[in-house]
Model the fold of this input.
Amino acid sequence: MGKIIAIAGPTAVGKTKFAIEIAKRFDGEIISCDSMQLYKYMDIGSAKPTKEELAQVPHHLVDLIDPRDDFSVAQYQKLAKDAIRDVQSRGKLAVISGGTGLYLNSLLYEMDFSKARKAASIAGCWNSVRKRKAEPLCIKCWKNKIRRPQSVSIPTT
Done:
């Protein structure tokens, strides 16, 4: 990863405005580092950039995920790194802006989420079983030797 500028801090301190000014001055594009701005329809309470702000410079990872879909820091890390590479491949400066510390850390430090992804997919499988009371999924998990995490209970009714 080449040079980036990261603007981090709590909600409503002016990160977006400052990031836009930096991106304009140094020919950059903004990659959101906010766990709520990623979601579509979450406009209230998230300090999401306005339409006017979004029009001033290109923004990435805003209004991307449906709130009904599962999403993890591992997925964020991949999307953000892809966006950074894309921005930099076009000779532009990547400006990271947001207040989600774990998301920022996933970009600045080598954080490996491969084991977390496997654990999440196993828990997801068993949660699907629990919610749907679906015997075929139980059998599939059993055949693939996927053990039920202790945190997931299976209804007996």
Q: What stands out?
A: The mean pLDDT is 83.
